[in-house]
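Ticket #4471: structure output looks truncated?

Reporter: J.K.
Steps to reproduce: submitted the chain below (900 residues) through the standard prediction queue, then opened the result file.
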Amino acid sequence: MSLWQRWFGRYGAEARRRDLDDEIAAHLAMAAAERETSGADAATARHEAEREFGNAALVKDVARESRGWMGPERLLQDARYALRQMRRSPGFAVTVIGTLALGIGAATAMFTVVDHVMLRPLPYAQADRLVTLSEASQTGRPGFGVTYPDVRAWAEQSHAVEKAAFYNRLSPRDFLQNGDASVRVSGELVSANLFDVLGVHPQLGRGFDEDASGLATNGNPNVMVLSYGAWQTVFHGDTEIAGRAVKVNTDTYTVVGVMPQGFSFPFDAAAEAPQIWVLGQPGPKDMLRNSDTPNYEVIARLRQGIAESAAAAELNTLQKQVVQGYADAQSREDRAVVRLRNYADTVVDADLKRALLVLSAATGVLWLIACINVTHLLLARATTRRREIAMRGALGASRGRIVQQLAVEGLMLSGVAAVLGTAIGMAVIRLSRGAIPTHLKVDMSAHVNLTILSVLCALTLLSAVISSVWPALLAARAPIEPALKQGGRQSGAGRGMSRLRGLLVVAEIAMSLTLLAGCGLLLRTLYTLRHVPLGFRTDHILVADLSIPSWRFTGMNMTTSLYQPLLDQVQQMPGVQAAGLMTEVPLGNTFNVMLTLNGEGHGMDSAHNITAVFKSVSPSIQKVLGFRLLAGRFFDERDTPSSQPVFVVNRAFAERNAPDPKDPASIVGTNLWHFGKTPAQVIGVLDDERQSSIMKPSQPEIEASIRQLAPGVSFYSVLEGNAMDIALRTSLPPEQMIPQFREILRKASPEFAHVPITTMDRIVDDSYGSQRLAAHLLEVFGGSALLLCIAGLYGLLAYLVSQRTREMGVRLALGAPRSSVLLLMLREAGAMILTGVAVGTVFTLVSGRLIRSWLYGVTAHDFRTLAVASLLLAVSGLAAAWLPARRAASVDPVEALRAE
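Returned output as attached by the reporter:
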């Protein structure tokens, strides 16, 4: 027999009862036999033995208690009784379970996302000891990276740093080749000891050979380590890959190892994405300390027991000596301070982290509202069961026993709600994948793990404690005699219980107003953002973000070899009205180049430095995106490689750099030095468009014609060899164009077969970022809170009507008009609503600071939003109160008095 069957099973309990009965029977038989030997007859002996033994039932209870049998048996009894209660009152059970499931489900879903984004353990050994090191000025201005001599000085001279490694992005677009196939990968140039610093070693092959410093190598420098994803995707898990020569773009490397599954560095949400790590061997330029010295990112492992603050203090002391190696005073100032951050704090975007924390707080409020609502229901339930509870107490049940029984009922309801809530939460996560902006790295493939199960169990127990134990304690403390004497519908709990339930409703209203107001502020922000002039069209536009395999076009003009033929084919697709190229479409956030030029002519100083966003475009892009021209002209067939170089600038650039800032058109005809010794003339001014964010004003921008950029011209390789977007406007639904569009891209270059294709509308939607995510979730939270609040208010007033039936009958019998009874109930509801709104207003004003950074065009303490939310809550509350109030006014005085 198993332990469960022994303690909780039916046959185990019966066996224990039989053993105890046999033991008592044997004791009585022995006592009777002893008296029979003294001369008593059998009946008398049996009677005297039983009288001496006492109450057999009481002895059984004491014996079971002393042997530890009663606890499990009572729990089982309480569980069975709770199930009978749920079957007896299915409506009540469904309401409680549904309410708790809503709160637990929301909390589970939100914590699951937080767990996968913020709490997911890094795939490194003792990751809490990993830190990033960077340099900054005394004023806090961040530097451009760390030079190799500085990294080496920290690694060799710092006692707090056990090991330090450097790394840098290999290039913006890398392609790993296997035969004729090539796959875009994320490549990192790393020091030899990087994997040793991270505490993770290859599962196949080996890592890099290290010299005494650990930062360089004694072996072959042209070596590479593959990620598990790259090994599987590109080489199909070839176990003989170690020692094989492969190509990245046009460079040849020898594969020395494969990292374990799940490893990635830098830490990325997509752990299985193809990655490569190429050994970075310091060269002569790395040994210098001047403006031409390469800069790197640095990750270090602190020694065991060293606090981050102590390490930072030691490194900054050491840095005073390190910067003396720079001859340039400005370099010494720019690198005067060492910044140390825990690596785990750098892997999640700050805006996303803030969004998740605020939404977690909103989820907690919703869960608390659900618990309060269930507490409210269970208080009403306990009040209607006062006579039953009093009867149990009169029959000898202790308060602890009564509390246990009621708490077990609540725990079972919470358990069922937790199971249902988990299913709801996981379903919400799966359904919400499409609503997450693509640039926010939120893992929506969430699954339940041990951490989430632990939190779920804690939520279930806490929900039961908050919603069940409190009503159980109040019910168990109620006096027995009044409940037994009265009974019926007037066995209420008195004014104290009514006040308590009223306070719970007020708390629900206050918290609901906080969520509704926050939702209103974010919705007004989205409304304002959607009405901000973008400066370009978004309808019926498809955009493909091309990963350019520039190595395929080495020595060729990519404009004539790739871009123009591709553009011609796309323009010939049925339904295409126009197609164009642009290094980055507005709000694309895929590739950004800042350019510093010198200007002269028309009052511009040749020594004046001009910094602006720089883009390369085809002349037809204006027809696709509909940019508005303020002055001059856009690019056309006159602009060829052999003609004078020309630029088009935007209004922000013209207002800052034109001879007459009040007249943007005055910049037309001025020269900007860019094409070597030949100046480029400004031929047109575009109206401003939103470039990187709808919330940010336009930055100065310069556009050059793709047709004029050729090999040998500066910035040709930066703009054309790394990034390009192709956009097309169609008269057909964009979704219908994607298959043919993708096939044309595949034929142009195999690397284009799987490039991301999206619509301009989706790009704009994604640009709303965390505002849209937070607004949609708060819509759900606010709506749920409003429903729970309405349900709580309705439940309280309905209960009050049922408890005050006799009072209403007396009022009506004494001549009170029914309208006065109606107003009496509505007045009580109105008092609770006004109190809740007043308290909620304070909560709203305080919590407004949490979402201030997401707001645009509205303040955190916007009166109109708060007024609308309060009005919505008040109207909904009064609507919920109308039915109970109307029922109270329609009471038949005769029937009410007769029932009492």
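Triage note (M.O.): checked the attachment and the full token line is present. The chain has four domains: 3-68, 127-346, 351-529+770-899, 541-732.
Status: closed, working as intended.
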